[in-house]
Each structure stands twice: as C-alpha cells, then as structure tokens.
Amino acid sequence: MDVASATNVANYIVEDAQVQKVELVSNSDSGARVRVYLADNTVEVSGNYNVTVKGIKGFYSNVTEMDPVTKNIFITENVRPTVSKVAIDSFTGSATNLTLTVSEPVTNADATTNDYALYIDGVEVTNKTVTVAAQSTAANTLSVVINEDLSDELAAGKSVKLVAKDTLDIQDVNNNKISASDIIIK
Questions:
Q1: Which end of the chain is more exposed for a tag (fewer CB within 10 A), N or C?
Q2: What is the rounded distance in angstroms from the CA atom of residue 146 to the CA atom of residue 129?
C-alpha cells in the first residue's frame, strides 16, 4: 500500500466522528493494516457506524487507486467524562476533603497520589499530596483528600486548584480518561 495515501486522514470517513490520525501498522506484499484514531468526544454512543476508505493507492509500482469501500463497524463511544461539581466536604485541621461529581460513572485503579498535584496561586505545593480514593465499581462521584487544611487559603481568596499529572488514570467504563486537567476549588 502506498504509505502517503494510506496515512492520509482525508481518505477515511467515519460516520458522525472525526478522524484524528492514521498509522500504518503493517505493509507487505501479502497485505497491509492501518490503525485509525478518532478525536476524543466524537463518538457519543457505542454502536454501528459506516466507515468509508477511499483514495488508497497500491503497493510498490501499482499506483492504481482502490475503489471506495464502506463497511458498517461497531465503534465504542469515546466521550471523556468531565467534573461537573466540586464540593468541599470538610476541613479537619490537617486535611481538606472533597467530593467530585463526574458526568458519567468512573473508576480509579488505586488510591495513590498519581492523579493530581495541588497548586496555590499558580505555584505547585510539592510537600502536600492529593489522594483520589480507589474506586473499582464505577460511580458518578470521587472522594479526594488533600493533606492540608485549605480553609485559610480559600478564605483569603487565593487560587486553589488541582492540576492533572501525566499519570492520571481515572476513566469511564470504556477506558476514556477523565477530561479534568484543572479542577478549581472554591
């Protein structure tokens, strides 16, 4: 398969979705395989969708363009969950307890500090931890404990937020990572 035409996003049409990237996985005399990546939040419901492939040219010197092909393929929804509400449950003198309400049920693999970092007035507070409780059964809320009583900072009007780390692993039942890079605490 011609690499340029095989990896051209314009040659792939997915009903009701946006193709973001195409990767050529294998390519030989016996056949070729591509992986098509869809943009986040473009497949709202899991189900069958028409997928059209067109404009692909042949392998080596065979430059004949293939006829367009449309197949009906099952695609899993890819809408990322979002945080819709942040509630301060309590200040304990040494911690701030929060409940995050999420747009759809999510899980969190383990209760570690790998999901969010604490920032106050734009500066990361590296000596404090943010722990999101483990959640093996999907639910629309997440419990968060910050090992710092933030009542004085919030009363003083300081900007307090949680910023997602690269290791964020909170996801919905279809493995879509939560879309909550910054969570503002008020």
A1: C
A2: 6
